[in-house]
């Protein structure tokens, strides 16, 4: 395919995801390559684009060992039965991996070096536990976690570095009570159950047919819960405020987005659903770790000349309730525009797949409500945060 000169705008043609399976649930036994292949194949079918015209496949995935090793992006494309000549690359920006995949895909298009790119992510957390890659080397006696690096300890000291400690530190610094977090978590579950009941996810979901022939069609993680049930849970740290009820759920899923240039839209007869208005990524204190979305959001708004009021909908990943509550306090984002269909507390956080899962949901909700701009951000390991602003077309 020969393309004329592009205007260097990156467009979202379509976006799909599997239902999210809870830990040990419907997708627990699915090989990660097959899980990712499912959404890639669905994306190709829905767009009816010639798969041979795709320039690259970029998937986010963490803990790339076992079924997620060996460049799962490339493997998934081949498992989907798609052309051999299309390459694939797997990337790890921790929780933001597939959001970063979209950024790389959009940057390829905006640079004029690529025209059609599949971006997405996959994670089977039931099969490969979180942080498995950091711990596996210890079993063989040849590696230690990053925070035990002499260079790291010289800079940051010998102290615990974990998402759980960070979530507690954030709750304390921003004076967020356990009760406030539990109220937020309950709202997440209620919003997710409402979204499912009203069919708001129907357009974005691609059911997965299980080995027994049944179709897995609905997110498994939202719970019927109450403030009373949450209050009865023990904190994760003695005397702490964080409990399992206010944390994202371990789960399994895949998601994928097709990014295209203007020239590719014309050449393949594609109608875009949105365009990438802004993309950026920033770092913050890696010990605090989960505060990244605050400064990253401020940076994105400053770069675009936009304000919080210009954004119609927000997706801020619910790694922990304290993260989103602190972010809302600092940025002024109103709760009635944030995670309106629930977030990771209710819908789960399949690490490598979450970025494009959030973008898929954000796109569909903008279309449902008639909003124009959506902003997506998430906290990431190492104190990082991506921000993407999309404009519905």
In angstroms, what is the radius of gyration?
A: 20 Å
State which percent range the strand residues make up: 15-25%
Write the H/E string, N to C. EEHEHEHEHHHHEEHEHEHEHHHEE
Number of helices: 13
Please give the number of β-strands. 12
Helical content class? 25-40%
Q: Outline the low-pLDDT stretches.
A: none
- Which structural class should the secondary elements be placed in? alpha+beta
Sheet with the most strands, sense and barrel status: 10 strands, mixed
Shape: globular
The termini sit apart by: 26 Å
GO molecular function: acetyl-CoA C-acetyltransferase activity
Protein name: Acetyl-CoA C-acetyltransferase
Pfam families: Thiolase_C (PF02803), Thiolase_N (PF00108)
Family: Belongs to the thiolase-like superfamily. Thiolase family.
């Amino acid at each position: 395919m020969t393309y004329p000169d592009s205007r260097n705008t990156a467009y979202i043609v379509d976006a799909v995801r599997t239902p999210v399976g809870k830990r040990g649930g419907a997708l627990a036994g699915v090989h990660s390559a097959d899980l990712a292949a499912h959404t890639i194949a669905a994306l190709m079918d829905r767009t009816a684009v010639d798969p041979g015209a795709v320039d690259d496949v970029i998937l986010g995935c963490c803990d790339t060992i076992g079924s997620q090793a060996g460049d799962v992006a490339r493997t998934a494309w081949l498992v989907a039965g798609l052309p051999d000549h299309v390459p694939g690359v797997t990337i790890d920006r921790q929780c933001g991996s597939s959001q970063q995949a979209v950024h790389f895909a959009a940057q390829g298009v905006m640079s004029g070096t690529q025209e059609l790119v599949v971006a997405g992510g996959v994670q089977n957390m039931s099969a490969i536990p979180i942080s498995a890659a950091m711990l596996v080397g210890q079993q063989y006696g040849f590696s230690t976690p990053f925070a035990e690096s002499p260079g790291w300890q010289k800079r940051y000291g010998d102290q615990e570095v974990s998402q759980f400690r960070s979530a507690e530190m954030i709750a304390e610094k921003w004076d967020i009570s356990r009760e406030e977090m539990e109220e937020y978590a309950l709202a997440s579950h209620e919003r997710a159950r409402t979204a499912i009941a009203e069919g708001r996810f129907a357009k974005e979901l691609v059911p997965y047919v299980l080995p027994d022939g049944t179709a897995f069609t609905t997110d498994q993680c939202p719970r019927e819960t109450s403030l009373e049930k949450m209050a009865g849970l023990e904190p994760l740290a003695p005397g702490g405020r964080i409990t399992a009820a206010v944390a994202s759920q371990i789960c399994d899923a895949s998601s994928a987005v097709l990014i295209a240039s203007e020239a590719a839209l014309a050449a393949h007869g594609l109608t875009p659903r949105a365009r990438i208005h802004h993309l950026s990524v920033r770092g913050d204190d890696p010990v605090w770790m989960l505060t990244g979305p605050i400064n990253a959001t401020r940076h994105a708004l400053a770069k675009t000349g936009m304000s919080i009021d210009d954004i119609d909908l927000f997706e801020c990943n619910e790694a922990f309730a304290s993260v989103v509550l602190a972010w809302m306090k600092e940025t002024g984002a109103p709760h009635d525009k944030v995670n309106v269909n629930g977030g990771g507390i209710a819908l789960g956080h399949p690490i490598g797949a979450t970025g494009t899962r959030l973008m898929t949901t954000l796109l569909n909700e903008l279309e449902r409500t008639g909003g124009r701009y959506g902003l997506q951000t998430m906290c990431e390991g190492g104190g990082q945060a991506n921000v993407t602003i999309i404009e519905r077309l």
